[in-house]
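#struct-help
A.M.: can someone run this one for me? Single chain, 355 residues.
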Amino acid sequence: MNAKPILVTGATGYIGGRLVPQLLAKGYRVRCLVRDPDRLRGRTWENSVEVVAGDVLDPSSLARAFEGCGAAYYLVHSMASGTGSFQERDLVAARNFAEAAAAAHLERIVYLGGLGRRSETLSHHLTSRHEVGDVLRAGSVPATELRAAMIIGSGSASFEILRSLVSRLPVMICPRWVANRSQPIAIQSVLAYLIGCMENPATAGQVFDIGGPEILTYKQMMERFAGILECRRWMLVVPVLTPRLSAYWANLVTPVPASIAFPLIEGLKSETVCEDDRIKDLVAVEPIGFDDAVRLALEEHRQHEVETRWTNASMPAHEGRPIRFDPTIREKTRAKIGSPGLGVSPISPRAPLSR
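D.P.: on it. Structure tokens below:
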């Protein structure tokens, strides 16, 4: 096994926060690049990793993070409802990262992007994800790009929107593009592909589509989800509900604010289906069907077994603005209280827990 540490960006986010403990469990040394190290406080693995403060938008802060690393995961991106500004910020960040990786003579980069065939109708968010992949692969360090559609896992913003809509609304007014096809994938499979690609040199410099074993429309996903919850839902499809109106509607009935819901919902306008399955010949991952993925996510949700969710991510576009939480979500912190007169000696608090 490579003794060099693996650099993980986006460790405060949903995917990165779940990837780190998986890497540690496999015996890898992990270094996390974060803008604010305090955001990792309370993670069960915080004392098992090296933490370096830095920002992909600040090239001068990256050299120390890359020094001595063998591979790196690029798991950062903006979730904003604007058009030009967040796309340009993503491109600048990717260029900085690629240049720093080259200067440090990194061996590999693994990046998680989004599915969707490029066209004039592809959302700004998915277009930006593709452009970031182009920038990383254009650098001198071999970069592997994985493209995924909706990730089914407790804490994922897309999944939380789906769960909230189905569990709360007996009747839903849906835009016509809920009939577009997608290929959702379980979070467990995403993590397996991320690690498997890093471990297999044959994946270097390539782009792979990753998805679950089923192709479903968003409407079918909601119907299947309702069946798992053993409830009946009625869906009325109308032609006038725009992505922005849909995002504001989602903001009213889910814990995800409109500014984050908009790019996710806008992405539903395009079909996000795998166009090749070459990855299966290089990385062995057990397929998880949609229903099983949902059940796993709901069980994690009930058992409070998830350390990360979409609210953990540090998003530049939303700093300084409060994020409206689902009132049914509880957050807990544990502290060890010292003897009387000796003050309080806090221990590492547990990460926020979902409902």
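A.M.: thanks! The two ends are 39 Å apart (CA to CA).
D.P.: also worth noting: The first strand starts at residue 6 and ends at 9.
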